[in-house]
């Protein structure tokens, strides 16, 4: 992830040779991880290449590869990692126990489960809304008015009660649930791909260098209604271009309705996208 980010920075600052070197190294590192760190028995990333670590998969060993795209487009590998994460989280919620993941790592948990978009954000919404042992809701129940350094006081009796590294939901709601992602500097171009799970509606107003970006959605899919519908309304800043992606909702064709006019969408997994 660091190599890929540095590659993008090098490209943006006019150093194409360095950008290519860094990007190629990031791809080579990911390929080496797939070759050396995927168990032949479970098909999951393991904790290390040798010894006891090679026989164990911590939840972190699935979270970070998903968050940083290490699976390299291998949909089956991504699905297995997502399944491991979901199983461990739901077991912890059911038992009322911790799931051995720090507040800091929870930022990458949310990034990982939104990166695997097959469930349209259902698991991510459960993470955000959980009131279990490890949750932001639990912080509120502890008396917090800002995010805490750790999930609970028993984990760290001298914890900070105003800790920025606990604020993962603020980014996750924008980039994951509402799916707003800049694709060029200063939001000249951006994507909007909501992953709301069972949330019926939401709205967002996001400040950008070009002005306010607004997005809201309503869905009957969350109600189990037939036929299911998903409506997205966008306010695009001046001199910007948006690409919108909506869940396919079982539709057999690739048609979207843009400002009341049927248009052909571009398939992206279980989503249909339209740009410009």
**What about the largest sheet?**
5 strands, mixed
Q: Which overall shape is indicated by the principal axes computed on the Cα atoms?
A: globular
Number of helices: 8
SSE string, helix = H, strand = E? HHHHHHHHEEEEEEEEEE
Helix content: 25-40%
Poorly predicted runs are: none
Q: What is the residue-mean pLDDT, rounded to a whole number?
A: 94
| Spatial extent as radius of gyration | 20 Å
Class computed from helices, strands and strand pairing? alpha+beta
Largest sheet, order of strands side by side? 1-2-6-10-9
Structure, explained:
The chain is an alpha+beta fold. It is 36% helix and 19% strand. The strands form three sheets. The chain has a five-stranded mixed sheet. The chain has a three-stranded antiparallel sheet with strand order 3-4-5, with no helix packed on it. Helix 1 runs antiparallel to helix 2, helix 3 (60-67) packs across helix 5 and helix 5 runs parallel beside helix 8 (168-177). The longest helix is centred in the first third of the chain and has 21 residues, at 16-36.
Map the helices and strands.
Elements: H1 2-12, H2 16-36, H3 60-67, H4 75-95, H5 103-115, H6 122-129, H7 136-141, H8 168-177, E1 180-182, E2 189-192, E3 201-208, E4 211-219, E5 230-235, E6 241-247, E7 255-258, E8 261-264, E9 266-268, E10 271-275
Helix pairs in contact: 1-2, 3-5, 5-8
State the gist of this model:
The chain is of the alpha+beta class and 276 residues long. It is 36% helix and 19% strand.
Question: Which key terms come to mind for this protein?
Answer:
alpha+beta, 276 residues, single chain, five-stranded mixed β-sheet
